[in-house]
Design a protein that fits this description.
globular; 23 helices; Rossmann fold; alpha/beta; binds cytidine-5'-diphosphate; Four Helix Bundle (Hemerythrin (Met), subunit A)
């Protein structure tokens, strides 16, 4: 190991004091954690009492009673998410039919924390302790007292009920001035209990971090005493490759390595795989969890003693000039590196192996990451603020101000979709309806994957090459998409709400896609996953249908008139129009909005067909910008759908 690694000079203590995202609890927590310890299985009650927040129980309850807002700052895994809601419940805050809500940044975190708290409280998940994520509600009105939810779900609840009355108990206090809580927030810092973490760096830069990560895991297993290993890679594609490489190496190296249990971890992981991650490692085994940055702050894995840090993560990045939002693999910041290392010191002193040099860490790594707000398309954020009644978004007190270009882009798109009016207010009814539709679009920049879903296409849609194109998308990240919502709301004008509803539902699930490159076992597993996703599509479709009915939009099929379907799609996606460069030999298109070079993705049925004009649903960026979910259009449909947008934007004769 010493040939490859050298210990770093960073003081271990610096790893343990800061919580990168400043955990904020009581209706909001930026971190959460998971699973029972693999080291001596103390009773659940004992485990609860060992957590750092336990010593602050009285102080927390006192501050919550006295202050309108209490902020608790503490390291990831110190017990903020799992314990504080229980303390509040035990102190009577959920009496009288009120709810204690606790938000988490990710869906997976919501699910795992809720099931942990249900287990600690000895109740069935979905009863006293429940959770709500988009399209899945595991609560029981009148019975649930502690509810975990994503930030997104809470924001949607605020739209219907701005005062969040089902969570409030303060109302009863307002009558008496003695009991009025202090409006100044209280801030309480919970001291962590982390152990020291020894940092090791590579001596020379590595050219292939995946292979380096695999080698490092094997070296740790060879040289280091028991303890689980957590490897930080970037995304599902990386992780799947590393899992495969490691399993191959294990087979090759033989018996001593059979103790390694290799597990992937990323959002969208099927439930059974999630459970494996959080099951304590059995004696004689060593768990190797290969994860995205979800294990950095959103989940805590208890038995981890060794961390392998690739130095990269997949990050959203947005270019307001080209209006392209993409997921790119980028170097992490020092703050992330410290947080990753800290994951090794939760149960006893640990080690972190950084797959980059100390010099790089000290001299080149950015101190902090760029806030997500400054790396995102602002469209859905603007809608949400508007729907909450915050109209002056330019004067809004942003935690990190977005760029004026990004803001202008967002306003422009929303105006052109008819979601905002000339005074930048939500339109009635379209704007308010769009704000209410919980639609998101999955997208990611991974290698092409091929679908096996033709069966479903024929069951659900019966025809249509367009749908096949939609189906051939791989998974992974999501953006809120008012364009899809607008398409849904416009479908009735084209007599195809039935078809569009199905298309929109498909765009909301993540995992119907499988690779046919897999061997038989993988193929069978994939089929199972697909079956689950199919059920989910039907479920989402049902929910969207109820929403549409609520808006008074009837369900109507256009009976195979694909022109109508395409026109309805354009009603939402006209801004994503592209035309084929006339003399292009290689299928190059240019976007009408920003003249960006884009190409039809090879997995699309329109790849090589290259229609003259197309509209896409999403872009993925790898070596080039690729359009996914593409349909062929007539340019005149663009001016029909959005005359204001196209008249001033594109003085292209083809459009006049
Ligand atoms: O919110 P915070 O990051 O401060 O911590 P938490 O989510 O409340 O987690 C506190 C502890 O609960 C973790 O350190 C784990 O030991 C345990 N936990 C668990 O074992 N399984 C879960 N699914 C969640 C938490």
């Amino acid at each position: 190991m010493s040939r490859f690694w050298k210990p770093g000079s960073e003081k271990p203590s610096t790893l343990l004091v800061d919580d990168e995202e400043g955990g904020v609890v009581f209706l909001s927590s930026s971190t959460s954690s998971a699973s029972s310890s693999g080291f001596g299985y103390a009773s659940l009650e004992r485990q609860r009492q060992r957590l750092p927040v336990y010593r602050y129980r009285k102080a927390i309850l006192y501050l919550v009673e006295r202050h309108a807002t209490t902020i608790v700052v503490g390291e990831t895994g110190s017990g903020k998410s799992t314990q504080i809601p229980q303390y509040l419940k035990e102190a009577g805050w959920a009496d009288g039919g009120r709810l204690i809500g606790c938000t988490q940044p990710r869906r997976l975190a919501v699910q795992t924390v809720a099931s942990r708290v249900a287990e600690e409280a000895g109740v069935k998940l979905g009863e006293e302790v429940g959770y709500t994520i988009r399209f899945e509600d595991q609560t029981n009105p009148g019975i649930t007292m502690i509810k975990f939810l994503t930030d997104g779900v809470l924001i949607r609840e605020m739209m219907e009920d701005p005062l969040l009355t089902k969570y409030r108990r303060r109302n009863s206090l307002l009558g008496s001035s003695d009991d009025m809580p202090d409006p100044e927030p209280a801030i309480l810092s919970v001291e962590g209990k982390g152990y020291t973490v020894e940092i090791h760096y590579v001596e020379e830069p590595v050219s292939d971090y995946l292979q380096a990560a695999v080698n490092t895991v094997l070296l740790i297993h060879e040289k280091e005493p028991p303890g689980d290993i957590l490897v930080f890679l970037t995304g599902q594609d990386d992780i799947d490759t590393a899992v495969k490489l490691l399993n191959e190496e294990i087979q090759h190296l033989g018996r001593h390595y059979f103790d390694l249990l290799i597990l992937p971890l990323y959002s969208g992981l099927p439930r059974t795989d999630q459970d494996l991650i959080f099951t304590p490692t059995s004696k004689g085994k060593r768990k190797v969890v290969i994860s995205t940055n979800i294990a950095e702050t959103s989940l805590t894995l208890e038995g981890v003693v060794y961390v392998v840090d690739s130095g990269f993560s997949k990050q959203k990045c947005y270019n307001p000039v080209s209006d392209i939002e993409s997921l790119v693999v980028a170097p992490i910041s020092k703050a992330s590196a410290r947080q990753r290392a800290g994951r090794a010191g939760r149960v006893r002193p640990g080690k972190c192996f950084r797959l980059y040099t100390e010099e790089y860490y000290l001299n080149e790594m950015q101190a902090e990451g760029i806030p997500e707000m400054q790396r995102s398309n602002l469209v859905s954020c603007v809608i949400q603020l508007k729907a909450l009644g915050i109209d002056n978004i330019l004067g809004f007190d942003w935690p990190a101000s977005p760029s004026p270009e990004a803001m202008i882009r967002a306003l422009e798109v929303l105006y052109s979709l008819g979601i905002l009016d000339e005074d930048a207010k939500l339109t009635v009814p379209i704007g308010f309806q769009v704000a209410e539709i919980p639609l998101v679009l999955w997208y990611q920049g991974s290698p092409a994957m091929v679908t096996m879903s033709s069966q479903l296409i024929h069951v659900e849609f019966s025809k249509s090459w367009f749908v096949e194109d939609i189906i051939s998308r791989p998974y992974s990240c999501m953006i809120k998409d008012p364009m899809i919502s607008k398409m849904l709301l416009s479908a009735n004008d084209f007599g195809c709400s039935d078809e569009i509803l199905t298309i929109a539902s498909f765009l909301s699930v993540q995992s119907v896609w499988v690779s046919v490159r897999g061997v038989k076992k993988e193929f069978d597993e994939a089929k199972l996953r697909f079956a689950a996703a199919e059920k989910k599509v039907i479920d989402i479709r049902g929910q969207l249908l109820r929403l549409m009915k609520g808006f008074g939009i009837p369900l109507k099929s256009c009976e195979g008139d694909m022109k109508a379907v395409r026109k309805a799609i354009i009603a939402g996606s006209f801004a994503n129009a592209c035309h084929l460069e006339e003399y292009s030999q290689n299928g190059m298109y240019k976007t009408t909005r920003t003249s960006q070079e884009v190409y039809i993705h090879p997995s699309s049925v329109l790849f090589r067909v290259n229609p003259k004009w197309v509209v896409y649903q999403s872009l993925v960026s790898t070596d080039k910008h690729y359009m996914r979910n593409v349909i062929a259009i007539e340019p005149s449909w663009l001016t029909e759908a959005a005359p204001h947008f196209y008249q001033y934007r594109t003085p292209n004769p083809a459009l006049s």
